[in-house]
């Protein structure tokens, strides 16, 4: 999962930077606005997609660990707290990054509709904040995906040994 996530996070960062770059060129021209709007729409959806994939990854791996615990292969007191700790670290920043992207889009629409410098300035500041927040979220998500993957590899080994003990002749 980590290589896939890194590819998505790097692509997403490039898209965020490109969208911001096009947005800083906007000064009332319709062509630049159209390019910024299109880039922002795609980038916003892609950013939400990346964070949803991370969210789904941790929900899915947590469910697999829980099922393996309920089958008696893993000990709940040893494994479940670790899985819950990953969720506690990742889910808040994941959610805040998604909310920031949505807020940036809403403020961008407001800035365009009102055509005021104050609205544009607020949108731009929130966009910078969104970029920094997403970069931090990618760091936290990547670090925890790596650690979670290592933990899952250990769980798979234990489960495989359990299967081998159950069916030694196969």
Portion of residues within helices: over 70%
- Total helices: the number is 4
SSE order, as H and E?
A: HHHH
- How many E-type strands? 0
Q: What's the average pLDDT?
A: 89
- Work out the strand percent: under 5%
Model description:
With 170 residues, this protein is an all-alpha fold. It has one domain (2-161). It contains 4 helices and no strands. The chain has helices spanning 2-24, 30-70, 76-114, 117-166. Helix 2 packs antiparallel against helix 3 (76-114), helix 2 packs parallel to helix 4 (117-166) and helix 3 (76-114) runs antiparallel to helix 4 (117-166). The longest helix is centred in the C-terminal third of the chain and has 50 residues, at 117-166. It is elongated, with a radius of gyration of 21 Å. It starts with a helix and ends with a helix.
């Amino acid at each position: 999962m980590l290589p896939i996530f890194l590819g998505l996070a790097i692509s997403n960062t490039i898209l965020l930077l490109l969208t911001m770059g096009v947005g800083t060129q906007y000064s009332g021209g319709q062509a630049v606005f159209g390019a910024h709007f299109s880039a922002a729409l795609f980038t916003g959806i892609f950013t939400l997609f990346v964070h949803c994939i991370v969210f789904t990854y941790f929900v899915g791996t947590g469910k697999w660990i829980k099922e393996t615990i309920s089958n008696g292969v893993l000990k709940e007191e040893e494994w479940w707290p670790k899985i819950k700790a990953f969720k506690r670290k990742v889910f808040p920043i994941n959610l805040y990054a998604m909310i920031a992207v949505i807020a940036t889009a809403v403020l961008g629409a407001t800035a365009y509709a009102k055509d005021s410098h104050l609205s544009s300035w607020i949108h731009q500041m929130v966009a910078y904040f969104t970029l920094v927040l997403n970069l931090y979220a990618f760091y936290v998500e990547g670090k925890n995906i790596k650690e979670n993957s290592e933990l899952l590899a250990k769980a798979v080994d234990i489960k495989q040994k359990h299967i081998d003990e159950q069916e030694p002749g196969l």
